[in-house]
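Hey, I'm writing a tutorial for new members on how sequence and structure tokens pair up, and I'd like a real worked example in the thread rather than a made-up one. If someone can provide the structure for the chain below, I'll link this post from the tutorial.
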Amino acid sequence: MGRHSLPDGSAPAITGSRPPARRRTLVLATGLALAVVAGSVVALRSGLLPFGGPCDGNSTRLDVAAAPDIAPALEAVARTARDGAIRTDGKCLDVQITARAAHDLADAFGQRPADPEFQVWIPDSSLWTDRVGAERGTPLTTAGTIASSPIVLGAVPTAATSLGWPAKTYRWAELTRAATSSGALRLGMADPARSATGLLALARTSAAGGKEGDDAETRTAAAAKLLHQRVADGESGVTATLPKDDSGAARDNPSRNRALLLSEQAAYAHNTESGSGPSLDLFYPQDGAARLDYPYVLVDDEEMRPEQTRAANRFMTLLGEAAGQRILRAHGFRDGNGRADARVIRTAGGRAPQPSAAGPADPPTVRELQALMGMWTITVQSTRLTTVVDASASMGTPVPGQGGRTRMQLARNSLLQALATCTPDDEFGLWKFATFLDGPRDYAEVAPTGRLGDRDTNGATHRDALTAALDSLTPEARSGAGLYDTTLAAYEKARTTYASGKFNALVLVTDSANEDAGSIGLDGLVARLTELADPKRPVPLIALALGPDADTSALDRIVAPTGGSTHRVDDPSQLHRVLLKAIITAGGKGPR
């Protein structure tokens, strides 16, 4: 009898380390393993667990959902367990592997399904489980890390040579800058909205750029624009964009990428696949690579039957043992600590002096990822913004230290700067409000929300019209702020004119509290916005509060039902910067 005939084995030989935020899950997993071992000892002493022999149809089934890249390796381990009649609770272990895209399951688990289809989930990254946790979705318990793979830059040989491979090494920011500075290189990546590899690569680009000055957001957005031109749904899709041969026609084909941001394992799979085209050579960043970490996750384990829990532990043990790790290495994976043997690195395309053994970069936080997705959304997706500007008398107040310029003048100039960053496909509109601005109404639509590149009958663009409308904004003498009725009317209009496929938002700029005593009132407005808000067609309300008299407590209540946010702006000349960050935050909360 070998060790594989034991019903539940010893504690799992899982070697992955986890960030501090996940220590609780490891404690839970350790307790689970000890409980299983203790139970197995009792059963052994009681003579309840048979050893060896055929299964005869008597088995315990475990359903596992896995990222498509690791699913074949897991199936090989599961098949070995079935062929060898590996047992749990005296029954043969029958593990069924289903390949499922991690972003799809993260969406499903984020909605707390009542009866999960799977007992175990092995996504390619803990980013997905963190997101489910942040959304308070299905309870997930991370029990360990079974494999890993660093994210690198792979290039076909001619492109790699042009970047100095293998002798030249780069930090991450230098590497992405070098790869995106030449249009001939054609750098591709997986879509960050659907791929952990793409999102982690974008996170490293942002983090590395942040160490080089205050303009990091602009540089990251510029890199994102270039990368978005050549994205694919996933790594299998992005490797399919490489040239199919070494011919000049294939190399010069503008639809073919010559370099990719991808995982080492994806490069390994490409280089070992027959007929996949030229092999990739890999650049490893000196300052640490982002890493896919393949967590072993129990799905709503408190609802699992005891035999399912023990079967899940048994399979995790098999994956951590030497035989399981050999199978994972044969598919191009490193172990959970990031160690890889020389054959895996060389086959994937690594060569000295590339720092393939460099330690991993720190993983991004959930908040950082939300900001990145917001930036990605507004960078690569057209935007539809309706901006509602306070034109009450107080907006004529001079701002200290600004040469006598008023709040309105500074806010107007800042909004013009924001307008200048918009593309012709973006949509922009402008309202203004005071009290009784248009007869009994507190508001007026100065320019309708429309595509900036559209032209009128005279040939002028909508951008021209918006620029003129902003230039014309002036405070209304002896007027107050009709805040509540204006907000409701503008939000109703934004909801009824919602544009699918765009980032929709309503921006409210004010320096006052509501001063229309006959308006709907704060409670009525919040109730009505709650009725109007639709998570499937989100229009976040972003409130920019200028100066000390803006009623931020009321604004906080107003934006809450819409998924928006309130931001105090002490310097109106910086309003465009605050607006950009607010949109980035709102974009990170948008639909996936």
